[in-house]
Specification:
13-stranded parallel beta sheet; ten-stranded parallel beta sheet; about 30% strand; globular
């Protein structure tokens, strides 16, 4: 069912955590991906690489992951980007979602925006037609939104135009001289905001002092949100890569896993417990230590892949239940829906992570069966 080349590529995908891109219509990968200003993609575009540069036009959604992302082109629908350094200064017809270490937004966005970053800046000239939510260590907003603005993080500076209300929960808030808020300002901080005399606030100003504990909780949630979004994007890219590059093998794995879900869950649970214990015990000797390291790496690879495969299985299961079909369906839509729903389920307190872990363990067991079959099929 699965050949050695397939599993070797799976291991590479797991090692880099961020796979080469995949998408509904067009996917591109490489150390550097660039789409020139004279180029047009007629459907959705999914990309990943060390550097992603897009100056052309995408007649659909644009999904990017990489070390450095620079967007100066035009996207008709939604834009989603995650990377170390993210700069988005083009035109976005739909919503914008971005996460990164350093994020700069200068784009004109036709929908809403949700951005998470360590250093986050919405530059002058950036515009949003709907609500904007920002979270990060240092947040600067100098752009314009036709709706409300929400900011969470450590320190924030507002020096743009907001045609609606502003809510901020930060340690320190500064309202600059160019700030214009037509609605009210509601903020929670450790001390009152530094509001420039030239700033314009059309509504009321409501201040609530927060203690250090509350402040740390807000920062923690901002960090958690960035980690969660980055993880979801990584798993989604892995899943889409498996679908487009190894569709037949991946479909076989997912369908077999669903048909033998209970047994695979038992296998996955047993192996997930025993493999790392055996690897750690083997470190007693030099040779055993090498085997133990290999065992831990194998465990790490399979668990990462299982997160994606578990989401795929959930998507196929949901399709079967809602369509009332007799067979499990597998396509790019079930891949995306399943992985996203599994990621969202993890946000549910107490039970959410258990739900996701069950599907991941079952996929882990299925992967182990396939891997074992690969080594013993010739015997």
């Amino acid at each position: 069912m699965c050949n050695k080349k397939f599993f070797a590529c799976l291991a590479i995908v797991a090692m880099i955590m961020v796979a080469s891109p995949a998408g509904a219509a067009d996917f591109r990968s490489g150390e550097e991906f660039a789409l020139g200003g004279d180029k047009t993609i007629l459907d959705n575009l999914y990309t990943a690489g060390g550097t992603v540069l897009l100056g052309g036009k995408v007649e659909g959604d644009f999904f990017a992951a990489g070390g450095t992302i620079l967007f100066t082109g035009e996207v008709r629908d939604d834009l989603t980007a995650a990377g170390g350094t993210v700069s988005l200064v083009g035109l976005v017809g739909g919503d914008l979602r971005a996460a990164g270490g350093t994020v700069m937004i200068g784009a004109a966005v036709g929908g809403e925006g949700v951005v998470v970053g360590g250093q986050l800046s919405v530059a002058e000239g950036a515009t949003f037609e709907k609500d904007v939510t920002l979270a990060g260590g240092m947040v600067t907003f100098s752009g314009e939104t036709k709706s409300g603005l929400k900011i969470y993080g450590d320190e924030a500076v507002i020096n743009g135009k907001i045609y609606g209300n502003v809510f901020a929960k930060v340690k320190k808030l500064t309202i600059g001289p160019e700030a214009e808020i037509t609605g009210s300002l509601f903020y929670e901080a450790t001390k009152e905001a530094n509001i420039d005399e030239a700033a314009v606030i059309g509504g009321m100003v409501d201040f609530k002092k927060i203690e250090i504990k509350g402040e740390e909780r807000g920062a923690t949630w901002a960090i958690f949100g960035g980690i969660w979004l980055s993880k979801l994007l990584s798993v989604l890219l892995i899943g889409l890569l498996l679908y487009w590059i190894f569709r037949r093998q991946t479909e076989e794995l997912v369908k077999r896993n669903l048909k033998e879900f209970g047994w695979d869950l038992l296998r996955g649970t047993a192996i997930a417990i025993c493999l790392p214990i055996a690897a750690i015990i083997s470190f007693v000797t030099i040779i055993g230590g090498m085997l133990g390291m290999g065992g831990l790496l194998l465990y790490f690879f399979l668990m990462i892949l299982s997160s994606a495969l578990g989401g795929m299985a959930l998507g196929s299961l949901i399709w079967k239940l809602f369509s009332k079909g007799k067979e499990f369906h597998f396509d790019w839509k079930t891949v995306v829906v399943g992985i996203v729903l599994l990621g969202l389920a993890g946000l549910i307190p107490y039970v959410g992570w258990i739900f996701g872990f069950v599907f991941a363990l079952a996929a882990f067991g299925g992967l182990w069966v396939a891997l074992s079959g690969m080594f013993f099929e010739k015997k």
